[in-house]
Amino acid sequence: MKLPLRAAPTGARRRASEMLGMTSGLRHRLLVMLIAPLVLLAMLNAWFDYRAAGNVASQQDDRLLALVPLVADSVIGEGDPPLLLIAPPVEEFLNERPGSAGYALLDADGKLLHGEDWLAGLPPPGAEPQFNSEEHDGTTWRIVRQRQPTVLGEVVIAVADGSDPRQQWARAILIKVLLPNLVLIALAAFAVRWAVERALKPLLDLREAVERRSPRDLSAIDEAASPEEVKPLVHSLNRLFGLVNAQAEGQRRFVADAAHQLRTPLAGLQAQVEAWAQAASARGAQSMLELPTEQVHKLRTATRRTSQLANQLLALSRADARGMQAQPMQRVDLKSLCEDILQSHLDAATAAGIDLGLDAGPVQVTGHAWLLRELLANVVDNAVKYTPAGGSVTIRCGRRDQQAFLEVEDDGPGVAPAELPRILDRFYRVQGTVGEGNGLGLAIAEEIARVHHSHLQLQPGAHGRGLRVTLVLPG
């Protein structure tokens, strides 16, 4: 009848961990959902910048076209080169862009008459202006060419501007658009991540609180301390904890009630059988109505074992109770505890021909005194029970490596290394073991050790003989 008390809370804790473990995916989704609009806005900003550059370029084309007739009007006489009196707007245009502005006069065949020689080329076929973007000396120039009448006759006027806004935009897109936006996105990513971490911190704290819980701790989580969005989850967890706790509490009550109900009749039955056994041993079987002495002793053994089982079930129920975690611990004198256990087991050890000794140093720990007494009694009883006559059992306590400990060592048959982990299981007995026993003594001791945030350490005794059971306790 092994209680599933640990299995249910562990399952609940696993479900909570799975649900709360989604915070990592939630964090990533929030980051993507918040950063993606920033990337789209950066791309939209770049597109608007390009459109703005295109509008400025269109205005530049209009300005260049307006300068063409002014350059034509600047021709005042023939010559080689022709005589020019530069119009003020043309002069202003040239002065504003030193090295990035130029003009040229070409004859009808495209031959240079005056100005920049690199602007010479095929003239436009008709009277309509012709716009081109041409590369010269590493600069992209915006050039307009148009036929115009002058004092020299019809000539081709070419005006060039090396400050093309679209070219400047192409050069500055990395520094003025992409780089600032990338820096903005990176800073926004860090800021958003920090904000998301802060926003999800209550959820992460809730996950850590659930992970740190003892399997026996089924108390409700404080819903008031949880974020509004997480309250439904916390409410569901509390409801689950309540259901599991109710089920486990019912099982504990059943074991406790069954053990209590068994104790009284078994105690009476055992008293009668003990008296019967003593009388049978004294005078032997004298009539057919009396049981043989051997059967009386077998009946006494059975009643002892049944009574011990009831007591152990009750102890297991008490040690396994969730309420032990909430009960305050007190200072326990381990030396005094060992002396009491020695006195209570001395007669049984002497009757079995076993040397029961004590090696105790002064030490105190924080714990439940009655539980530690039950633990030590079970371990000593187990050692006395399975140690053959002529053997020895030693109870120890004290400090070792700055830690308090309880220890029981015997020189009996011991336990095979392969079976050491299993002897702490409930109702497990080593095959071939003789003597009375229900397989609950060490299981109860291990349960009590867990209540004290420790566990039993099982090792062979001195010279590889027997078994040494050690419990290390916090000071």
Please, could you describe this protein's structure?
With 475 residues, the chain is an alpha+beta fold. Among the domains are: 74-163, Beta-Lactamase (2-Layer Sandwich); 231-318, Helix Hairpins, CATH 1.10.287; 328-473, Histidine kinase-like ATPase, C-terminal domain (Heat Shock Protein 90), CATH 3.30.565. Helices cover 53% and strands 18% of the residues. It has 10 helices and 14 strands. Strands 4-3-7-6-5 form a 5-stranded antiparallel beta sheet, with helices on one face. 26% of the residues are buried.
Secondary structure layout:
Elements: H1 7-20, H2 23-73, E1 75-77, E2 83-84, H3 88-96, E3 101-106, E4 112-115, E5 130-136, E6 139-150, E7 153-161, H4 165-212, H5 231-283, H6 293-319, H7 323-326, E8 330-333, H8 334-351, E9 355-360, E10 364-367, H9 369-386, E11 392-400, E12 403-410, H10 441-451, E13 456-460, E14 467-473
Parallel strand pairs: 9-11
Antiparallel strand pairs: 1-2, 3-4, 3-7, 5-6, 6-7, 8-10, 11-12, 12-14, 13-14
Helix pairs in contact: 1-4, 1-5, 2-4, 5-6, 6-10, 8-9, 9-10
